[in-house]
Amino acid sequence: MIRASLLACGLSAWALGAAAQSPLQVIAQQPPGSGSDAMTRAWAECAGRLMGRPVVVQNKPGANGILAINYLKGQAADGSFAMTIGMSQMTITPYVHTQMPYDPLKDFAGVAMIGSSPLVLVVPAGAGISKLADLEKVARSQAGGLNFGSPGKGSPAHLLTTALTDAMHWPATHVPFVGESAGLTALMGQQIQAMTLVLNTAAPQVKAGKLVPLAVFASQRSAVLPEVPTIAEAGGPAVLARPSWIAVVAKKGTPPEVIKTLNDATNQCYSDPVYANSMDKMGVTLMRSQPADVLGFAERDIAVWKPLIDKLGLATQ
């Protein structure tokens, strides 16, 4: 029995060592070109460089992260796979389904927080809209109300914009897309009339004169777009000042040694000037963290979003 136990320990150590030497497969749950994908690739480059381990990013977009999550759940928890995941997938998406497709507090092991970024409500340039009051006129002037897009059902953009139209008593219709890029294309083509975007997706188009920002869903103005009012300053509910965040998770059961290595690398990236500069340009505020902080942040925001989802009746099959 002792010999068998020692053999088992030896095999476990060998497997852990093999996983550490093999490429780390990082699953990105949004398509290439999205803000989430850009943050994932910046993190993967820095973490891989500091660990001395190849990191390969795989994009698995669809169903607001559910396809990526199912893919991760189908892999071995041996340290070969990790996933970047947003506030949406950790605190909103599972609760907009009457039958939860996954449990964020039970299916994942937290690795590290990457950072947070505010969301911005924007409209296409040339639509004659420059403030929330103008958007209200549009909402009340047409059948079906305001047509607003989002990167998918259950995304922070979906929930924030729905909560805004509900609080302002505007009629509205939600138009979901597969990722921000598709929604952004439709918005600039005026196929939809408004959309809430992460800051690093919105800012370049705002500065290029293609989009008009109406409000930042934050309690303070952003240094990236300092002229844009907060949601409260724009006349909306202050309670909607909730920035999005992105984290790294692994499948539940992943060896703690692997998680610690990834967490250490993430925190070291915080002090890497190239990484910090790239994230700053994307409007991301970096966050030092321990693995337990990921589920801690999730629990905090679930306590806010789930009651709102229930109040608005957003849960469907």
UniProtKB/TrEMBL annotation:
Gene3D superfamilies: Bordetella uptake gene, domain 1 (3.40.190.150), Periplasmic binding protein-like II (3.40.190.10). InterPro entries: BUG, Bug_dom1. CDD domains: PBP2_Bug_TTT. The keyword Transcription does not apply. Keywords: Signal. Transmembrane segments: none annotated. Residues 1-20 form the signal peptide. It comes from the Bacteria. Belongs to the UPF0065 (bug) family. This is Bug family tripartite tricarboxylate transporter substrate binding protein. It comes from Comamonas sediminis.
